[in-house]
Amino acid sequence: MTPRAPNPPLAALLTLLAAAFVAGTTLLAKALGTGSFGTWDLGPPLHPLQISQGRFLFALIAILAFVALAQTRLERPHLPLHVARSAFGWGGVTLMFAAAAFIPLSDATAISFLNPVFAMMLAIPFLGERVGRVRWSAAVIALVGVLILTRPGAAAIELGAVLALAAAMMFGAEIILIKRLAGRESPPQILLVNNLIGVCLSTLAASFVWIWPTAAQWAALAGIGFLMAAAQACFVNAMARADASFIAPFFYATLVFAALYDAVIFGVRPDAISVTGAVVILFGAGLLAWREAGLKRTGQCSQSS
């Protein structure tokens, strides 16, 4: 594949588009999980397992079309790594979609930004990385933000926050496996195999709760899959045009888009606790991203910091 010429402004725009698309998938998942899109009745609520099946199915259709048109060369995949990665990704997606039905999209999205924190923790035993004071401090700060969003002073901890936290853990484990795959196979092949396995896993799980969707629900399920495929395409192209350390802050705009969609469609506006928790999480995640970028520049990723 011909390397892309560096183009930071285009990379920033593509990342913002990816953020808008990712927030859109969570919005549609919330609509399907609650049975309504604002004042528009979509039909009986769908189970998160069925929603995640639709996400993988329609994303696979979009990726298959891309691979066929681009005539992408495929090699023999490392199936054990792919199966493990896809299992964690499917679990994370399902839990995230479930969380969106219980808490504001901004809260669920903010908690999902913990995935690099969990990836950092898992990199210690699985990748042999050493983690020092700065990165541990960033992790603790981000976790404090989640503690705020769980509203521990309430009568009960928010179920949606717990589900979103579990999703972030799953995504963190997936990141570790993606790192193992990245040096072995091309990005299009990784996406194709991931979604193919994801369809198999999600279809098996959804078979126990599956109901026939309404026309509006079919459209929303297709929207989730196609938006996710578009987000992945935008993000991969952005990564080809700028450094990850430059791109990462723009992806935090997902939180802004999620809050905007929630306010416009469902009339849900973040309260003071949501804003405080989100700011704390973003500060911790941003500090971690900054430190990782610094280590990459100095070639010290495997050393303590």
Structure description:
- The chain is mainly alpha-helical and 305 residues long.
- It has a domain at 46-220 and 269-298.
- It has 12 helices and 2 strands; from the N terminus they run αββααααααααααα.
- It has helices spanning 8-34, 48-70, 79-100, 105-112, 115-127, 133-149, 159-182, 187-206, 215-239, 244-251, 253-266, 272-298; strands at residues 36-37, 40-41.
- A two-stranded antiparallel sheet has the order 1-2.
- It is globular, with a radius of gyration of 19 Å.
- The two termini are 35 Å apart.
Shape: globular
Question: Mind describing the biggest β-sheet?
Answer: 2 strands, antiparallel
Spans where pLDDT lies below 50 across 5 or more residues: 300-305
Task: Quote the average pLDDT.
Answer: 86
Order of helices and strands: HEEHHHHHHHHHHH
Structural class label: mainly alpha
- The total strand number stands at 2
Radius of gyration: 19 Å
Q: Helix count, per DSSP?
A: 12
Distance between the termini: 35 Å
Topology:
Blueprint: H1 8-34, E1 36-37, E2 40-41, H2 48-70, H3 79-100, H4 105-112, H5 115-127, H6 133-149, H7 159-182, H8 187-206, H9 215-239, H10 244-251, H11 253-266, H12 272-298
Antiparallel strand pairs: 1-2
Helix pairs in contact: 1-3, 1-9, 1-10, 1-11, 2-3, 2-8, 2-9, 3-7, 3-8, 4-7, 4-11, 4-12, 5-7, 6-12, 10-12
Quick structural overview:
By secondary structure, this protein is mainly alpha-helical. Helix content is 75%, strand content 1%. The protein has a two-stranded antiparallel ribbon.
Descriptive keywords:
75% helix; 305 residues; disordered C terminus; mainly alpha; two-stranded antiparallel sheet; 12 helices
